[in-house]
Amino acid sequence: MKTFIAATARLLGTVVQARIIDLQWDAQGRFDTAVILEPGKFVEVCGKLSKGQAIAWRFQADAPMNFNIHHHEGKKVELPAKLDGATAAEGKLAVAVNQDYCWMRSNKSDKAG
User: Fold this and answer.
1) Are residues 41 and 18 in contact, defined by beta-carbon separation less than 8 angstroms?
2) What per-residue confidence (pLDDT) applies to 104?
3) Which segment of 6-10, 40-44, 56-60, 71-75 scores lowest on mean pLDDT?
4) Residue 81 has pLDDT above 90, yes or no
């Protein structure tokens, strides 16, 4: 199983306004990133996944975030996970189709997080 960790840590993070990050697994099958989102901005981590993969994921933030995991099928957007106003979450993604998947966080609050 691969592990995706999107952690926000004020001392370790880079403040971003909007950003798309390529999902790149390390030698241990992990991906870690730390960002702090400005109010009204978003970050997406996207990469190609294969049907049958299982991805453990988690995130934490200092401010409430809208979060989703999504992929596109034509004009339709599939959302295997969706949370609004969360400061932390974790789960497992069972990859259903060969596709580019994105983990997206958007900061709808009035403080960086």
Assistant:
1) yes
2) 92
3) 6-10
4) yes
- Contact between 79 and 38 under an 8 Å Cβ cutoff? The reply is no
Q: Read off the tokens for 75.
A: 């004009």
pTM (2 decimals)? 0.83
Give dist(CA 9, CA 89) in Å, integer: 15
60 burial (CB, 10 Å; 0-12 / 13-18 / 19+) is middle
- For residues 100 and 22, give the distance between their C-alpha atoms in angstroms, rounded to a whole number: 10
Query: What is the Cα–Cα distance from 21 to 3, expressed in whole angstroms?
Result: 16
pLDDT at 12 (0 to 100): 38
Q: Give the tokens for residue 25.
A: 């697994």
Helix, strand or coil, per DSSP, at residue 108: coil
Query: What is the residue-wise DSSP string for 47-88?
Result: EEE-TT-EEEEEEEEEEEEEEEEEEEETTEEEEEEEEEEEEE
For residues 53 and 101, is the Cβ–Cβ distance under 8 A? no
d(CA 27, CA 31): 10
